[in-house]
Each structure stands twice: as C-alpha cells, then as structure tokens.
Amino acid sequence: MSRAAVQRQQRAMIQLAAGYGALGVVILALLFWLPWQTFPDLRLWIPFAAAFVYFEWQTVEVNDRLFASPSIMVLLTAAVVFGPESAVLGTAAIAAIGLLTPADISERQWFQPAANFGQLIASAAAATAVLALFLRVGVQPDVSGLVLWRIAVGSALASIVYGFVNYRMVLFAVSRVYGRLEVRPWSHIAAILLPMTGMGFLGGMLGATYLRIGTAALPLIAVVFFVGYMAFESYARLREAQESTIRGFIKALEAKDLYTRGHTERVARFSEMIGKQMGFDGTQLERLRWAALIHDVGKLAVPRDLIRKRARLTDEEYEIMQLHVHYVEDLLEDVDFLRPMVEIAANHHAHYDGNGYHGAGHEHGETPSKEACILAVADTFDAITSTRSYRVALTQPYAYAELRRHAGTQFDPEVVEAFIAGMENSGHRYGSSVELTEEEARYLAEEGLDQIRNADQVHGRNFPLAPMSKETPDG
C-alpha cells in the first residue's frame, strides 16, 4: 500500500472512530436523561454484562472482517428481564463495556474499540427500544399468554432491527476504512444473519422463561448462550477448513509449477473484478474466486516435463495438456463444497460459441456458464500479459485487442467489455512496456532469455519460466 493510501486510511479511521464514538456517547447521555428509563438492579445487570463481555471477547470471523457472537441473544434476554422501564438503558450500558477485546489490548488498537463503542450501543439501543414498546403494558412474573405473545413478536422484530443496524454500521466502517479493493463482498449473508435473528428471538423467550421461574432458569440460559456461540464457531471452523483445503491444492500445484503462484492469484483477482463489474453478489464472487484458484489444479496430473517444456507443444502433447480440465474433476469431485466451483474450473477452456475443450458438465456446441466465460477471459488476459517459455509478455493494449478479436467466438463479448471497463477503472497496468508482435515475442523467447526477463514487468528477472498451451492465448 502506498504512503498516500495509508494516510487516507488513517484519516478515515480517525473520522470513523470519532463519529461512532460520539454517537455512542450521545445515545447514552440521552438514555440517562430520559425520565422513563432507569438503571436496572445491579444484581441482574452484572451477570448479563459479564456474559456479553465474555462472548464479545470470543467473537469469531464468519466472513472477511465480519465477526459474530451470540451477543444479541444476551441483550434481548437481559432486556426482557430488566423490563421496559430499564431495558434500553440497561442494555446500552452493557454494550458500552463490550468495546474492548483481548486483540485490541495486545495490539494497542484504538480505532476498533472506539468504533465498537458507538456501533454496539446504537445497535443495542435501537433493538431494545423496539422490544420495550411491546412490553410497555407491563410484564408480570406470571407471564400471561398475551404478554408472552408480545415478547415473542417484540423480540423477533428487535433482533431484525439489531441485525440491520449492526450490519449496516459494520459494512459502512469496513468499506470506509479498508476500501472495496481490500475487502471482499460478504458471502452467504443469509447463513449468518438468519441464525442471528433466530438467536434474538430465542433471547426474548429466555427472558420470558426467567420471568416465569426466576433465578432457577439462569443455568438453562447460560447453556443456551454457549450453544449459540458454538453455532457461530462451528461455521467459522468450517469456513476456515474450506479455505485451507483450497490453499493445500494450490501449494501442491505451486510445488510442481512455480509460475502458478502468481497466475492463480491474478486470475482470481481479475475474475472478481469482472464479477463486480457485472453486478455479482458476495456469494457469487466467492464461488468465482474459488473456481479461479482451483482452475489449474488438474495440472497436478500432467507430466512435469510437459508443464515446464520450453518450446511449442506437439499435437500429442497438446492433447495431454487438454486433459487437465478432466483431471480437476477427478481430483476434486468428492469434495462436496467445491462441486459448483469444479464445474466452472473444468469449463474455462470451453468457447463462447461452443467450441474449445471442456469438462464433463458441458456438451460440445453449448455456451458455457457465465462464470466459466469470466474465468476464460481472466485466464487469457494473464496468459497474454505475462511471460511464458515460448513467448515474452505482451502489452496490455495487445491483450485487449486479442480479447475483442475473439469476442463472440472464444469469449463472451459482454464479459470482455466488463473486464476492460473494470481494468481501466482500476488504473492497473500489466504486461510488457515494449510493443511487440506475436512473432517477435516468440522469437525473443527462443533467442534471448535476458530480453525476456527484462520485458516481463509482472514477475521480474528472477522468476522461473514455464510454458503453457499453444492455443489462442489461454492460461
């Protein structure tokens, strides 16, 4: 990151921390000033405050810089127990002490606690204010059917409000500070927000249970809190296991072909850029990114000498190289979560007009999926703009021209234009700075190794050369 970018990020952090922190202070001051809100009994407040702080300290990353815990369940349970006259102030005060985490202390972070302070207080106050409106008729220890109904509806709506306010504030903070290039759009949001909403509803019911049977319900409440936490932790562990699986395959391929290290990462980045340009959501972009990261895994089954050959492939060798789209299916077909991505990866050499070569999920003559078309364009652009053993890297304008020349036959025209628009908007440049024809680039590869390395702006002089196929520029 450039120095100017770091300074912009620091300014954004200061502004956001000040804004969120001030918001939290204002909300707390108003709640203490309001005559219809009193502070709850400390004997009730302290146990719930301790539970909230504990779970905030145990938050798990369920998406890129998106952390989750059963905090909403703790807050809404406490809100029902405190009653409408203390619910908003009591829970806002609980949220206020959850601003610090062990990581903030050890890393001496100040931005995160200040932002958390305002975000947690605002989310808690908004949610419990909704619940308090449903409880204004008065909640008695016997909990009549009418009151139980009001608790159920109120806690469900409150959990939705909490999720919306919390999600929007976190999203704004992340996008404001880190920017769109550094944070991937969040995927599988329904799998995160729906359980959170359910936990909020369950929190309200736990509060009703406490009102029904008193302190005897506390052990049950504590157990349910921990079960809620384990749900998020299990999701986070599963997600990490999936990422580790993909990283393992990539490392194995890198050991066989060092060129792949930069290639897969760039193709994944280009694919995501195209997807964003075409309006893909977070889940679609994640599937596209993973497909890009595994698209060359089938080359693990291709002979090493063939992958590293310094000359054009013979027809027989080319046929063997084509088999890598089937090998990726053979290697990964039993990995359940990767199946949609395997189908995309296996068809990234299928042409828009139905020609090319493809995996088992695609028939000759059919147009491949939009994701496979995106991967094909991203893969080809990187093949053209980086050095191969049979050809020096070509320029970015040349790559654009080649993509447009084959649009409608090899490539999806919509994808080609989306890629070029996204690349121009990003301001990034790839490929050689020296304008060459295809033949000149191939001659340099055959006759002048030093000139190849000098012309390669992607990898640098010391990067080992590796070949790819002889087809129209494909990766």
Commentary on this structure:
- The longest helix has 39 residues, at 218-256.
- The chain has helices at 3-33, 42-57, 71-82, 87-96, 102-106, 111-135, 145-178, 189-213, 218-256, 260-277, 282-294, 304-307, 315-322, 324-332, 339-346, 370-385, 396-405, 413-426, 438-447, 449-455, and strands at 60-63, 66-68.
- Strands 1-2 form a two-stranded antiparallel ribbon.
- Helix 1 (3-33) runs antiparallel to helix 7 (145-178).
- It folds into two domains: 3-240; 257-455, Orthogonal Bundle (Hypothetical protein af1432).
- With 475 residues, it is mainly alpha-helical.
Order of helices and strands: HHEEHHHHHHHHHHHHHHHHHH
The mean pLDDT is 82
* Low-pLDDT segments, ≥5 res: 138-142, 455-475
Summed up, the domain count is 2
The total of beta strands comes to: 2
Largest sheet: 2 strands, antiparallel
Decide which structural class fits the backbone.
Answer: mainly alpha
Question: What is the strand arrangement across the widest sheet?
Answer: 1-2
Helix content: 55-70%
Beta-strand portion reads under 5%
Attribute tags:
475 residues, mainly alpha, Hypothetical protein af1432, 2 domains, 20 helices, 66% helix, elongated
SSE map:
Blueprint: H1 3-33, H2 42-57, E1 60-63, E2 66-68, H3 71-82, H4 87-96, H5 102-106, H6 111-135, H7 145-178, H8 189-213, H9 218-256, H10 260-277, H11 282-294, H12 304-307, H13 315-322, H14 324-332, H15 339-346, H16 370-385, H17 396-405, H18 413-426, H19 438-447, H20 449-455
Antiparallel strand pairs: 1-2
